[in-house]
Every structure is written in C-alpha cells, then in structure tokens.
Amino acid sequence: MSATTNPPEPGAQSRALWLSTIAFTVCFAVWTIFSIIGVQIKKDLGLTETQFGLLVGTPILTGSLVRLLLGIWTDQYGGRIVYVGVMVAAAIATFLLTFAYDYTTFLIAALGIGIAGGSFAVGIAYVSKWFPKEKQGTALGIFGAGNVGAAVTKFLAPVVMIAFGWKMVAQLWAVGLLVTAVVFWFGTKDDPSLAARRAAGEKPEPMTALLEPLKNIQVWRFSLYYFFVFGAFVALALWLPRYVIDVYGFDIATAGMIGAAYSVPASIFRAYGGVLSDKYGARRIMYWTLGVSVVVSFILSYPPTTYVMEGIRGPVEFHLATGVGAFIVLVFVLGFFMSLGKAAVYKHIPVYYPNRVGPVGGIVGLIGGLGGFVLPIAFGALNDLTGIRQSCFMLLFAISAVALVWMHFAILRMEREAAAPALAKLPALPEMQPIHGPAQEGVLRGGAIEDWRPEDQAFWEAKGRAVARRNLWVSIPCLLLAFAVWMVWSVVVAKLPQVGFRFTTDQLFWLAALPGLSGATLRIFYSFMPPIFGGRLWTTLATWSLIVPALGIGFAVQNPDTPYWIFLGLALLCGLGGGNFASSMANISFFFPKREKGNALALNAGLGNLGVSAVQFVVPLVITAGVFGALGGDPQAMQGGGTLWLQNAGFVWVPFIAAAAFAAWFRMDDIASMKASFADQAVIFQRKHNWVMCLLYTGTFGSFIGYSAGFPLLARTQFPGVDALQLVFLGPLVGALSRSLTGWVSDRWGGGRVTFWVFAAMALGVYGVIHFIGIKDQPGAFWGFFGSFMFLFFASGVGNASTFQMIPAIMGKDMARLMPDADATTRRLQAEKESAAIIGFTSAIAAYGAFFIPKSYGTSIAMTGGPLAALWAFFLFYLLCIAVTWAVYTRRGGLLHDVERRPPPAAAMPAE
C-alpha cells in the first residue's frame, strides 16, 4: 500500500473490499454469459466446434487485452471512477447483444461484453491500496472470490433462458451491471493513495514509469502461472457445460449445475487461498496447486479405453473410463486448487510492486485472461483435429506440468545462487573433502573465458580467432541437425498417404505447418537462453532434445492406425529444432568482432540452413532401404506396389545428434561477458529497430523457411503429374548456400542496401510463381514455377545474411544516441548484448513463416480452390518491406545511409 499520512477509515476500507467483490462477481457473471446462452446460439446458427470456441472466447479476449490499460489508468486516475466506467460500458454492450442477428454481429457484441472482464485489473489495484502488506493476501483473495460470478451464470441463466429465452438473460444481466455501478459509486471512496496524491497536488506517474517492472522475468513467470490457474479456470467454466452434454448426455440445466460444481470452489475458496498464502507462504501454495493439477488433469485427460491382454486362459478385456461421479469430484478438486493458486500468484504483486500493482497486475491478468480466450479455441480445434473429447485436459496437463517444472527450476536456481560462495569452495567429488583445502579450490573446475576482446586486433590474431572458429565449426553441424529435425515433416507428409495413412489435405498441411508454429514460439525463449545459462550448456541440451522427435517419428509412422493427434504432438516437438536457431545465432555473435560478424553469422546460419536441404535430399534416399536392419523395423507396403522404410526419416538423424551433442559439450566455450539476465536483455523491447528488423527478417528468413516447409506439398498439389519430391531439396540448398557465401557482400557494401534489392528480387520471384501457376496446364509451366522458386530461395538466402549484418551496425550507431555519457567500451559491450538478443528475437518472430506460409497455402486452396490468394499477399508484403527498408535505413538521412557509404574496409571473404 502506498504511504499515506493517515490510516484508512475502517468503514470505508470494508466497503471498498466488499462492494468491489460484489461488483467483480456481477462483472464475471456477464463476462461468462456465453457459457450458457452460447449453447443455444450454437444450435440456432449451426456453428462448428471451432466457431463455438471462438464465440465463447471472444469476450475473454477483450477482457484480457484491456486489463493492462485499465490497470495503468487505475494507478493514474483511481479505481473508483475506472471501475464504474467499466461496468457502464459492459452493460451497454450486453444489452446491445440482443440485437445481434448473425455470427459476425454476435462476435462484435461479444467484443464489447468482454470489457466486463477488465474489471479484475481495476479491482486488484483498487483493493490492494486499502490494506497493509500482511493483510493483502487475504483481502485480494476475498476480492478474487468474485470469480463465483461464473457459477451465478450457470445456476440462474439456464432457468431464465428456458423460461424466457436467451435474450432475457442478456437484458437482466445488463440491468444488474448498471445497478451495481450506481451502488458502487455512492458506496465507496477514492483509495488512500489517490486521496493523498491529490491533496499534495501531485500529477499521475507517466505510463513509461509504470511499465518499467515488465522487463523482469518473474512478472512473466507469474503470468504463466496465472495463465493456468485463471485462464484454464475461465476456459473450463466456459467449456464444461458443452463437455458434459456431449460426453455424459445431460441437458443444459443439469450441465449448468455440473459446471457450477467446478466454478464455485474455483471461486469462493480463492479467499481461503489468500489466508493460506499469508500464513504459510505463496510458494508452498503454488507447489500444491500445480502438483495436484498435474495429477488431476492427467487422470481427466485419459480417454475411455478398452484393453485386451493375452492371458493364460485367453484374452482378458477390461475398460477404463472416468464416470460422471468421479468426473465431478475431480473437477471440484481441480477448481479448489486453482482457486488457491489464483490467490497465491497475486499475493506477490502488491508485496514486490506496491506502487505498480496496476500495470503488473494488469499484465499478469492479461496473460491469464488470454488463456480464457485461447484455450476454448484450442479445445475446439483439438476436438476437430483429434476427435477425442478429453484432449482439452491433455492440453491442461501439459501447461500445468511446464509451469511446475519452470517454477521448481527457478527456485533451485535462486537457492544455488544464494549458496554460490559456499558451493564454490567444495571439491568436485565428495571423497576429496578430507584433503581439500584453499589451494585446491576451483583448480579442477572449468569456467568461462574471462578475457575476451575480439575487437582488439592483437588479441584476435593471437588467440581469439582460433577459439571463435572452433566454436563456429561445432555450432554449424548442431544447427544443421536442428533444421533437419525441424523440417522433416515437409518430406514425411508427402509420403504418409502412400503407406496407408488416410489424412485429408488440410490435415497434411497442418502437419507441415505446426513445427513452424512451435519452433517460432520456442525461439522467443531460446533467444535469451545463452546469456542466462551459457552457450556451451544450452547448445548441448538443445541438441540432445532433438532425439525425442526423431525417435518419435520413427516409431509412429510404422503403424497406419497411429492416431492423428500423436502426429500433431510429434510435429509440435519438431519445433525444438526450430528453437535452436535463435540461441545458436545469439551465441555465435558474441565470439566475432563487428568486422566479421556478418560473415560468421552467414556461415553459421547458411550452413545450418543446409539441414533443410539435407532432409529433403537424404530422407527420400534412406526411406527406400532398410539401412538400420532389424533395429529399424519392418517396411511399409506402398499403395500401388513397393515398400518404404518411412521410419528412417526420423531414425537417420539419431546417431548424428548424439555425436554433435558430445562435440558441443567438449569443444565449445562460454564467455563470461556474455552473461546477462532476462531483465538485461529485455531492453530490446524498447528499441524500435528491434521491431523494424522483425518485419524485415520475416520477409527474408520467414520466406525461406516457409517456402521450404510448403514447397514439396505445394508442388505435389499444383503439378500432380510431376514427381517433384526428388528436386525440392534444391530450393533450400540454393537458399542456404547463397546465405553462407554472400555474407561478405553485406560486410562490404552494407546490409541495408543489399536488403533493399533483395526484396525487389523477391517481389519479382513471387510474381513469376503466380504467373506459372496461372498457366500450369501449358508445357514447361512446371519448370518456370520451379525456376521462380529457385530464384526466390536464392534471394531469400542473400537477404538472410544482409538483414543479420544490419543489426550490429544499427545498434553500434544507435548506441551513441542511447548512451551518450558512456565510454566507447561500455557502448560496445552493450551494443553486442543487445545485437545478440535482437538477432535471436527477430529470428523467433520470422520463424512463424514456417507456419503461416504452408497454412496460407492450405487456407487459400480451401477457400478459393488455389494458392494464388496467398501468393498475392506475399507479393504485397515484399512491397511493404521495400518501402520500410528505404524509409528507415537506406534513404539519405536514414540510419545506415552514412555508415554504408563510407570507404569500405578490406573485404571479409568467406572462410575457407
């Protein structure tokens, strides 16, 4: 609580808490209104599962996105006026819902209704300022019990809807909001902090100051916890009525009652969670919450299964399924521990950020609320893709397990750092303790390179170049294998129908696209890992992780009855390979001086990119022979005759992954000056050039990886009479070689100028693809199509090198403006750290091209009958990139104009 001259008036304090809780309850009831009326709307409009999930989740999206802004406004202008404004706006939107007449207008109305969900960020900031730290856990727990509004809707809305129709539900809920707003306005006062600030004549703090804590990684870790304990709670509150209707055959009234059996404990016990957090500590409560959630969600995720075992007297059959009674008990337990977890998460915020409760609580609430939006859509998509109702709980099991592991390792790391001086004095082996003394301390323990000065020419020639090149040449094969595993589905999906898998074209495009989605998402996290854990350790672990999807693919493709959802999981796991690129590039950038970074990064990325070409060249060869003998399994019969060892597409990489991981551990190094926390690196989110380069690198690398993933399947669907699978490896090969061999061009002439002409070439190349697809029935059209794609791959490879060369140059020049009082060495070190982080982060954003380009093909074909709509969108995107490159960097007055037109230094030719 902010400092005030006088303690708050007890009556005003009590009214602020209880009226805020009542208001939040009413807002929450409105926010989840579609969980009941949506069932009838789904029936009236004939919606699919995915459309229903989007409708139910849309209010959650709005309520989540506005939380950060509402939290900031609460700190600036006071919770009382902001809270009333939220309720009035949501009441108007809820009443207007009754005038919706089709799916689009229902979605628009749902966006407005979602404002009610933003009330949480307002209430948290408002209530916390009335109570001292030792009572905030209990107070915020009581306020958070307003989640019970979801149960209010489930109890009352079915009764009203059956009697009067769903429109009456909306009208009554709107009136309830307005009445509550009036009572709240006249029954509460401004919080003590706001009153004291106004009395002193102080102005509200600027938004930039309020957002400063968001650079701390613990804020984002809290956000993940809340994504589960609150986001999953909201998602299940919305989803459960539909779930129990489909799984157990109940009517809407009974389904609402069962949903309430989950919602009530997940709401009212939040207050008890606040008491427990105050008494026993939030850490212990979070361990119990996530631990129990992992167990319960695993049980609920188990689909009804019949087992047949070969017994002594014949087959023994038994059936496993969760009955309705057990289901209700389990969701009650899950809801109870989620309620404790919600209170435990928010116990931290007013303690560590007493004057920033609005923005910090807002962002945590935003991410948690997004869970309530994303998860219902994911539940619907999983149902459509897997055909398993329990798939929603499978996803919740994965999220809770990740949150538990991350929390546990964060705590272990904190404890190790606290005990670091004592641990450093211990011997490496416990049996050495009797003869261990000061003379032996640290002698046998490896360490990072302390003295690293690559810009010092004498140091570089004497020692630096040899160390840097050794790390580079170990990094390259690790990255090559990562790309191979990442892109293996681009070849495998084209062969699945030939060995008996009956997947639709859209399902095959999903398998080709999902590694891109998961790989790009993992890159966001991987880009910050080398400075935190050290490049050597992280490269080793990341390389070992590739074995999991490689082995999984090898086993899964041997049986045509393998469920589609298993293939979806393996496709997502292949994203582990995609994530490696961000950490690899960030790591290598530290080893080389600025004058050689472009070439070094081009070699690492370009030769690493050869993994895409390698997989498209090697896999078609190894799947035609039993290269692993009996260990590899039996071949699969092909439709039309012949056999394939499709499992070799995964198995072939396993021995190389093991060898590369050992090489990384024994031959790579850590640099002490590389060490940086997430908070140190998070400054890049304030750099505008980080976001500009995300756009440009998406145009180059996003195109390269997206075309690599989608080219084989696009060629097969557009030119079915041509066996293109033996040729498609040439595209990634051309792109990888052009990247690795042209880095010196950007070092000599400037990455900005090269990038400008690259985008012009890519616009020309995609226009060629459009032209030849348009005349695909004419002789020679395939070769024009193929040649246009080769030109695109070549241009994208050159652009991959040139955009990465731009980043150190941009930050090196911009650092003089950002750090005007710092000396040259400090600026150089800061520029290197930020450049490495930006390189990793831009690669993460650009990697989404591996998902969006193949998915764009599939969507365009599904909606228009062909891929031309997607290709025209790519053409327009390249025109945008041309304009941005010129306006920001290469025009006279652009950031790089003067830098790139100085007399060039001696060319840094490619390494032999």
From TrEMBL:
One of its GO terms (cellular component) is plasma membrane. The chain crosses the membrane at residues 16-39, 51-70, 82-101, 107-127, 139-164, 170-188, 222-240, 252-273, 285-303, 323-345, 357-382, 388-407, 472-496, 508-526, 538-558, 564-586, 607-631, 651-668, 689-709, 724-742, 754-775, 781-807, 836-857, 869-889. This is MFS transporter. Keywords: Cell inner membrane, Cell membrane, Membrane, Nitrate assimilation, Transmembrane, Transmembrane helix, Transport. Its main location: membrane. It holds the Pfam family MFS_1. It is found in: Cell inner membrane. GO terms for molecular function: nitrate transmembrane transporter activity; nitrite transmembrane transporter activity; secondary active transmembrane transporter activity. GO terms for biological process: nitrate assimilation. Belongs to the major facilitator superfamily. Nitrate/nitrite porter (TC 2.A.1.8) family. It comes from Falsiroseomonas bella. It is a multi-pass membrane protein. Residues 15-415 form the Major facilitator superfamily (MFS) profile domain.
